[in-house]
């Protein structure tokens, strides 16, 4: 019994020594950590306000804010460890030893991080652009570019999250880079229709549309002799934001105009002849 009491007293003394040695430092470290988090939150808000007032691109500002927040938190942890007088050399050695294994496990995430940095440096697209990516076949408006992922909003208001690694390593079509775009359409009419009359009808529709750029001469010409129709290529220019409206308007208005001018639009059909051999 006396031995147990002696051991208890020894543990008690050691515990008191540890509390006396590290207790105050632990409390101070917790206070530093709590205050540090508030300071980081305040600095991030200042950065957000600064970028809002400046002319820095939205995608770049979001990436810088995200990266700064991460770096400040790492710095805060290092300060807390230093205050606790924990040997940082041993921690660095452990991190270095485990870093290889973690790196192998996070190859995809590292590729996404590198892809995010490349996207922000090379600027193939930015927030607000309408893009079409070939890796997964998705398209939409770029809502956000984060460190690891890019978010798209589709035309029907769905949200798609894409890894930056695939975006940076595959072809991406940016429909918003240029201020104007060309609308390419093909209309088929019957072989017996007069070519000049067809071209005149198409040109009348084009000239009446208010969103088509009149400074650029439209291209109207026969592009193919099809199986059942003569196909006319119609190429016109419009502002990028008007592309879909111009395209669908022309498809509808050409049909109305052809009906008014009695220009027939052929469709695939099959003639079936029944031969009766019974006599």
Describe the model.
There is one protein chain. The model has no long low-confidence stretch (mean pLDDT 81). The chain is α+β, with helices and mostly antiparallel strands and 279 residues long. A hairpin with a 5-residue loop joins strand 3 and strand 4. The longest helix has 52 residues. The protein has 3 domains: 85 residues, no CATH class; 64 residues, SH3 type barrels, CATH 2.30.30; 81 residues, 2-Layer Sandwich (Alpha-Beta Plaits). It has a 5-stranded antiparallel sheet. The protein has a 3-stranded antiparallel sheet with strand order 6-8-7, with helices on one face. Helix 1 packs antiparallel against helix 2 and helix 6 crosses helix 7.
Short description:
This protein is an alpha+beta fold. The protein contains 7 helices and 8 strands. Strand 7 and strand 8 (230-239) form a beta hairpin.
What is the global morphology?
Answer: elongated
Integer count of domains: 3
Number of separate strands: 8
Query: How many helices?
Result: 7
Q: Which band does the percent of strand residues land in?
A: 15-25%
Structural class comes to alpha+beta
Overall pLDDT metric: 81
Residue runs with pLDDT of under 50 for 5 or more positions: none
- Determine the N-to-C terminus distance: 126 Å
Whole-number radius of gyration?
Answer: 34 Å
What share of the residues lie within helices?
40-55%
SSE arrangement, N to C: HHHHEEEEHEEHEEH
The main β sheet shows up as: 5 strands, antiparallel
């Amino acid at each position: 019994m006396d031995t147990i009491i002696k051991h208890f007293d020894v543990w008690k003394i050691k515990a008191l020594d540890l509390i006396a040695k590290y207790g105050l430092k632990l409390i101070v470290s917790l206070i530093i950590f709590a205050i540090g988090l508030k300071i980081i939150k305040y600095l991030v808000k200042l950065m957000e306000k600064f970028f809002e007032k400046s002319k820095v691109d939205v995608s770049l500002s979001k990436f810088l804010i995200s990266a700064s927040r991460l770096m400040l938190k790492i710095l805060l942890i290092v300060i807390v460890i230093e205050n606790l007088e924990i040997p940082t050399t041993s921690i660095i050695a452990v991190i270095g030893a485990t870093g290889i294994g973690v790196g192998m496990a996070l190859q995809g995430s590292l590729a996404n991080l590198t892809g995010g940095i490349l996207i922000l440096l090379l600027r193939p697209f930015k927030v607000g652009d309408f893009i079409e990516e070939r890796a997964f076949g998705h398209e939409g408006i770029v809502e956000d570019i984060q460190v690891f992922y890019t978010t798209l909003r589709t035309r029907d208001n769905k949200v798609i999250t894409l890894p930056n690694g695939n975006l940076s390593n595959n072809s991406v079509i940016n429909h918003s880079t240029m201020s104007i775009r060309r609308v390419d359409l093909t209309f088929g009419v019957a072989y017996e229709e007069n070519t000049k009359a067809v071209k005149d009808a198409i040109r009348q529709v084009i000239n009446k549309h208010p969103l088509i750029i009149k400074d650029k001469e439209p291209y109207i010409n026969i592009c193919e002799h099809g199986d059942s129709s003569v196909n006319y290529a119609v190429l016109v220019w419009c502002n990028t934001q008007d592309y879909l409206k111009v395209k669908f308007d022309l498809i509808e208005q050409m049909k109305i105009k052809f009906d008014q001018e009695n220009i027939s639009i052929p469709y695939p059909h099959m003639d079936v002849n029944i031969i009766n051999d019974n006599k």
